[in-house]
Amino acid sequence: MERTDWFRAATYGLFIHWGLYAIPGGEWRGEAIPCGSEWIMKNARIPLAEYRRLAERFCPAQFDARALVRAAKRWGMRYLCVTAKHHDGFAMFDTAVSDWSVMHTPYGRDVVRDLANACAEEGMPFCVYYSQMQDWEDPNGHGNDWDYDPTKKDFRTYFYGKVLPQVRELLTNYGRIAMIWFDTPYDMPQALCRELRETVLACQPDCLINGRIGYGLGDYAQAADNSIPTLARQCAWETPMTLNSSWGYMKRDTAYRSPEEVIDRLVQIAGKGGNLLLNVGPDADGCVPAGETEVLERVGEWLARFGESVFDTAAAPDMPYLIRWGHLTYCPSRRCLYFHVREYPTIAQRVLLTGLRTPVRAVTLLSDGRALKWSQSYEPARNEHRFYVFLPPECAEEFDTVIAVELEGEALAQSLDEL
Length: 419
Ligand code: FHN
Description:
Blueprint (H helix, E strand, L loop, with lengths): L4 H6 L1 E5 L10 E2 L2 E2 L7 H4 L4 H5 L12 H10 L5 E6 L25 H12 L3 E6 L23 H19 L5 E5 L6 H14 L4 E2 L11 E2 L14 E5 L17 H13 L3 E6 L9 H17 L19 E6 L4 E6 L8 E5 L5 E6 L8 E6 L4 E7 L10 E7 L12
Parallel strand pairs: 1-4, 1-10, 4-5, 5-6, 6-7, 8-9, 9-10
Antiparallel strand pairs: 2-3, 11-12, 12-17, 13-16, 14-17, 15-16
Helix pairs in contact: 4-5, 6-7, 8-9
Bound molecules: ligand FHN.
């Protein structure tokens, strides 16, 4: 058993960026502030005294932790991670360390507790995001150079006085924390990152730590935001991804990814052995915007039919050529390669995979289990393996037609150099 086993099998998680920044929703004094709405304090250089006043207005009457966790399950997600503290330093949990928390708002409820309880009841692994270096409220935290003089900051005072105590609170007061998600480590001293890791594991030895603790100290690799690696990776890894241009709620941005695009990204990531942590930004009332839920519902419906081709998969072999019609995912225990046909052939009625060495046993259409015709050949003079699946004309699915290709053994690919 590896610490990351549950995480690798989970493949698809819900990221929730929620905090005071949901109130301005990307606008300040009538002006649209560019980039992520959760950065509004820094990007608009809002004086702390002014930003603090948002806490007086935080009262998300519609927030329903149980409904959100149930929705995440329906959407096909298998873990959930919420911003316990983002860069503005505001704790969405009850903390004894600082008054800068949700407990000191008209709402006065511990959001992390409500979500932790709902996840425990629904059997959903619960994870917390914690901004360990940036804290624009704390005089010694990194990032606020408009209220505080950076030359007078003492990062250790912040680290020992706020970070470690709050991390201990999160890992002590909320039951099992499946993973803690750190972010923007910048140039934090490596010794402190090690101490942070030790602190987490002293509280909960099974808690996973993401790659952004820094210096390779995480339990899994973190891809850059919204980025998919070029090649498959054998280690555990994850891509955090937005549905629009912002992590926090942004009023003016309703240009969400389509269900088709989300499925495409999820399939690509699963095929390269990774996880997709897909973000929503609830608004000031505590509601996930309808434009986001509509997309996620459609993706969830697709996963209910085709989830077998995404969950419990591992990296598919890197094929020698880019696949023109779509992507591959791979389940080693079932010895099954899944063809995700995004460009359904309309004239030739077949798809080709070049370079698959492993003999094929059977080919079926995942939607209804019907057997499909196929052929596999090897041309010695060119040293080229070719595998064709013949597709009936009427079988194209709306987003992605999935074909299960059962193999006689482990999936092996020719390398480009042999061809
Ligand atoms: O600055 C943050 C950003 O607001 C957001 O939390 C993302 C999520 O991956 N991480 C940082 C930028 O990489």
